[in-house]
Design goal:
By secondary structure, the protein is α/β, with parallel strands linked by helices. The protein has eight helices and seven strands, in the order αααββαββαβααββα. The chain has one domain: Vaccinia Virus protein VP39 (Rossmann fold). 37% of the residues lie in helices and 25% in strands. Strands 3-2-1-4-5-7-6 form a seven-stranded mixed β-sheet, with helices on both faces. Strand 2, helix 4 and strand 3 form a beta-alpha-beta unit. The longest helix has 14 residues. The chain starts with a helix and ends with a helix. The model has no long low-confidence stretch (mean pLDDT 87).
Length: 209
């Protein structure tokens, strides 16, 4: 019964987006990180940004629409995002992105990798390295184990989210190598959810492939 309810909830982008919005207090902390780390509206900010696993397109508004591209493997989420937010959207497998090499100046991955196995994350990281120009920024925000034992709502949200691969900090770091160099990392509180932030730089072709 519960599994069927979760499947129905996840199948409805509007309902799932609303649940995440409430759980993460309107995504205020996430948006602050995007603004600080990617500086999307600054004159020297990234011209072309890939939102990898964009889901409902919740963070499209953080970027100038002419330079924003969202991709996701779920057609109904991409369709919903395209109807609600400006930008360009595509249905794609993260392990086989249909973009030219070096196409993007930055990429955002928010709450995606904890749904994927290590093998799929490595394949996705390799593809992100291919479509990002050398020196480009990869900003990753991922769920981590709830740091406060008494945060029952946070534990419940992780269960509802059905992210079977919520990793430790060390595990995430290992998956980013060798294609990206970690510039800095820190943890934030997003509503009832604990997230790790990783600011990474795409290695050069010579030392990163």
């Amino acid at each position: 019964m519960i599994q069927r309810w979760l499947d129905q909830l996840a199948a409805d982008p509007r309902m799932w987006g609303a649940l995440r919005w409430v759980a993460e207090a309107g995504f205020g902390a996430d948006r602050a990180v995007i603004t600080r780390e990617l500086r999307p509206h600054a004159p020297d900010g990234p011209a072309q940004v890939l939102d990898f696993g964009c889901g409902t397109g919740e963070f499209a508004a953080c970027f100038p629409p002419g330079g924003y591209v969202g991709c996701d493997i779920a057609p109904h989420y991409v369709r919903y995002a395209g109807q609600r937010h400006r930008g360009r959207y595509a249905v794609m497998d993260g392990a086989a992105l249909g973009f030219a090499a070096g196409r993007f100046d930055a990429a955002l991955v928010l709450g995606v990798f904890h749904h994927l196995s290590d093998a799929l994350v490595r394949a996705s990281i390799q593809e992100l390295a291919r479509v990002l120009r050398p020196g480009a920024t990869l900003l990753v925000l991922e769920d981590i184990p709830t740091r406060r034992w008494w945060n029952i709502a946070g534990h419940l949200m992780h269960w509802l989210d059905r992210g079977d691969h919520i990793r430790s900090d060390a595990d995430y770091r290992r998956l980013f190598a060798p294609h990206f160099v970690l510039e800095r990392s820190y943890a934030i509180q997003s509503g009832i959810c604990d997230l790790a932030v990783y600011v990474l730089q795409r290695t050069t072709a010579r030392d990163g492939g």
